[in-house]
């Protein structure tokens, strides 16, 4: 199997093709997660402004889950297995910052979010 590039033919072995596709896929996923983290950081800044305007912590907690945690949870089933340790650390850092800012009463981690949600009101 060859790829034609301006008069040249490049042939890659199946192993090299697989390695190249893996790198492309991982680079693409890292870009997606970086964009998501950027968006979550912007939302955290908005929440800081709301906190400074006097919004109670109970409402900030709801906003955190609606704007930040839900975005991370939505992406997790498809991409969490491909995350590098660096990105996991960045996501956990974002969630720890939410605790430090007073947006939640509990420290949330990426590992905690991968567990199924148990609705205590139905039990």
How many β-strand runs?
2
Return Rg in Å: 20 Å
Characterize the largest beta sheet: strand count, sense, and whether it forms a barrel: 2 strands, antiparallel
Percent strand equals 5-15%
The rounded distance between the terminal residues' Cα atoms is: 58 Å
The succession of helices and strands, N to C, reads EEHHHH
Low-confidence stretches: 1-5
What spatial order of strands do you see in the largest sheet?
Answer: 1-2
Give an overview in words.
This protein has a domain at 36-115. 67% of the residues lie in helices and 7% in strands. It is built from 4 helices and 2 strands. It has helices spanning 14-52, 57-79, 85-100, 110-113, and strands at residues 2-5, 8-11. Strand 1 and strand 2 form a beta hairpin. The longest helix is centred in the N-terminal third of the chain and has 39 residues, at 14-52. The radius of gyration is 20 Å and the shape is globular. It starts with a strand and ends in a 10-residue tail after the last helix. Residues 1-5 have low confidence and may be disordered.
Q: How would you briefly describe this protein structure?
A:
With 123 residues, the chain is mostly helical. It is 67% helix and 7% strand.
Layout of helices and strands:
Blueprint: E1 2-5, E2 8-11, H1 14-52, H2 57-79, H3 85-100, H4 110-113
Antiparallel strand pairs: 1-2
Question: What brief labels describe this structure?
Answer:
two-stranded antiparallel ribbon, 7% strand, 4 helices, globular, 67% helix, disordered N terminus, mainly alpha, 2 strands
């Amino acid at each position: 199997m060859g790829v034609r590039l301006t008069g040249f033919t490049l042939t890659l072995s199946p192993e090299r093709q697989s390695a190249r596709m893996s790198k492309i896929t991982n680079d693409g996923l890292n870009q997606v997660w970086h964009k998501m983290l950027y968006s979550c950081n912007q939302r955290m800044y908005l929440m800081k402004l709301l906190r400074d305007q006097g919004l109670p912590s109970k409402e900030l907690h709801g906003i955190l889950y609606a704007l930040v945690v839900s975005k991370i949870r939505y992406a997790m089933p498809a991409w969490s297995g491909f995350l590098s340790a660096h990105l996991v650390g960045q996501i956990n850092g974002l969630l720890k910052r939410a605790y430090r800012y007073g947006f939640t009463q509990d420290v949330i981690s990426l590992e905690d979010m991968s567990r199924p949600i148990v609705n205590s009101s139905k039990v």
